[in-house]
Structure to design on (491 residues):
């Protein structure tokens, strides 16, 4: 129904009665009816495609369990275990249960309230001194008296929802529970992505550590060969010092990688709800970084906005705040309560069995705080501004969701180019190192050339590994931006 005119509380009583009767019969409620969220991204809704997608993505609907596309059984196991045992999920589930309990409470508030009472009392009264009360003389021979009282009764009350306050409260509580459900899904999305990124970083550090150890072994062999040449007089002590310095530098490069590897092991264990160190044995073996598929299914922006949990949570919050305006509006008008009491009583327990001798009271009560000096109007304004805030937050959530998706698509698009370029650089560095070693062994090259090309080849390998890890991380970023990885199972 349309909003009622926000007039002052001084309109005639006849109009108030007619308004209440119409609202009761029509089942309407004050305040605006929620008609859905505003259009926050008209261009995306019109084109139905991402701007930064490129030719590596398809509009095919993506799969929710995106990690299966990477083909890494260990990663799949870690994410599925995290989605069962992570403490943050427990927090989100508890909040969901709280919101559902709040909904049940609001639904119960709209129903009548029925109570029962029973009383058994014994009273002893002091002797009455009637003469003293009348100003005459008293013999003081009065005696104490006693009395018993027994009663049972039932009472009921029900507030008639004349202006829809209870209905709006139930609507707000329902939307709040839906928002809590969406927030739980959002935690699942973030958790799956966080586990994926930590796993990728772990495998990246393991690969770079293995590469660094290979470089150390090669340089140790180079140092031994240089020592032999120094002894034979075919190399100088300066050459020996240069090889030793490069070997020490390579060993030093391993230290921060080892610390980062341990940190990612600790992070994964914590994400799975376990103590740091519990996954060390399981993930000790070095494994490559899983690479994304050649084509990535992303769907379209409209589907993204419908699926992404944080956008749904913002939309449900907007719906809840819209309903609360009606609650505030209803508080400006009278409330009608129906009361009823029925009871039996007497001075003997047998009196409670006399069903034909009972007391009953039934009465309506109309209350109206018409002179509140603007407090009710201020609450309505406060609720309207809260709704406006929720609408702006929804618009911001939509724009940020689209930006996240476009950023991730752009990173993956250029990440593929970077991997291809660095792969060619590594091939060239491998050839240059092989040639420099051949020249040095043949005596036509210098040790400096070998050391320099070795450093370049190691850098090329490290850069390629890092680019591959970044490419897979961009794939994970796309899945998170698309709002994938959550389950709609009951919380």
């Amino acid at each position: 129904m349309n909003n009622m005119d926000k007039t002052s509380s001084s309109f005639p009583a006849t109009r108030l009665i007619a308004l209440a009767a119409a609202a009761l019969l029509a089942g309407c409620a004050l305040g605006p009816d929620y008609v859905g969220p505003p259009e926050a991204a008209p261009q995306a809704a019109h084109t139905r495609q991402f701007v930064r997608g490129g030719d590596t993505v398809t509009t095919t609907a993506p799969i929710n369990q995106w990690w299966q596309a990477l083909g890494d059984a260990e990663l799949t196991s870690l994410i599925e275990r995290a989605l069962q045992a992570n403490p943050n999920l427990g927090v989100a589930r508890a909040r969901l249960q709280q919101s559902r309990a709040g909904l049940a409470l609001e639904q119960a508030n709209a129903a009548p309230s029925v109570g029962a009472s029973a009383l058994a009392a014994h009273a002893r009264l002091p002797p009455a001194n009637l003469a003293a009360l009348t100003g005459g003389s008293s013999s003081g021979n009065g005696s104490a008296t006693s009395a018993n009282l027994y009663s049972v009764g039932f009472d009921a009350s029900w507030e008639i929802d004349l202006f829809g306050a209870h209905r709006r409260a139930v609507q707000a509580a329902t939307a709040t529970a839906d928002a809590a459900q969406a927030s739980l899904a959002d935690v699942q999305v973030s958790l799956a992505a966080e586990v994926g990124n930590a796993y990728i970083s772990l495998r990246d550090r393991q690969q770079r550590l293995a590469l660094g150890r290979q470089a150390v072994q090669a340089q140790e062999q180079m140092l031994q060969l240089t020592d032999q040449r120094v002894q034979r007089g075919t190399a100088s002590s300066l050459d020996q010092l240069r090889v030793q310095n490069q070997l020490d530098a390579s060993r030093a490069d391993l230290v921060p990688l080892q610390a980062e590897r341990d940190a990612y092991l600790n992070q994964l264990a914590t994400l799975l709800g376990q103590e740091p160190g519990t996954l060390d044995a399981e993930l000790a073996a070095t494994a490559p970084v899983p690479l994304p598929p050649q084509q990535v299914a992303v769907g379209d922006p409209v589907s993204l906005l419908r699926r992404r949990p944080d956008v749904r949570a913002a939309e449900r919050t907007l719906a809840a705040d819209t309903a609360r305006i009606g609650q505030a509006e209803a508080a400006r008008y009278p409330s009608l309560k129906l009361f009823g009491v029925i009871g039996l009583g007497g001075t003997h327990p047998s009196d409670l069995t006399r069903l034909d001798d009972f007391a009953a009271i039934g009465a309506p009560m109309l209350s109206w705080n018409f002179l509140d000096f603007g407090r009710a109007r201020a609450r309505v304004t406060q609720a309207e501004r809260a709704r406006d805030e929720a609408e702006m937050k929804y618009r911001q959530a939509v724009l940020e969701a689209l930006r996240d998706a476009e950023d991730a698509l752009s990173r993956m698009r250029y990440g593929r180019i970077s991997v291809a370029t660095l792969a060619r650089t590594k091939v060239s560095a491998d050839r240059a190192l092989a040639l420099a070693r051949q020249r040095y062994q043949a005596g036509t090259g210098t040790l400096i050339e070998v050391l320099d090309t070795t450093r370049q080849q190691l850098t090329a390998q490290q850069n390629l590994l890092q680019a591959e890890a970044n490419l897979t991380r961009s794939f994970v970023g796309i899945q998170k931006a698309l709002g994938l990885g959550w389950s709609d199972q009951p919380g």
Observations:
- The two ends are 34 Å apart (CA to CA).
- Residues 165-232 form the longest helix (68 residues).
- Confidence is low (pLDDT under 50) at residues 1-17, 22-26.
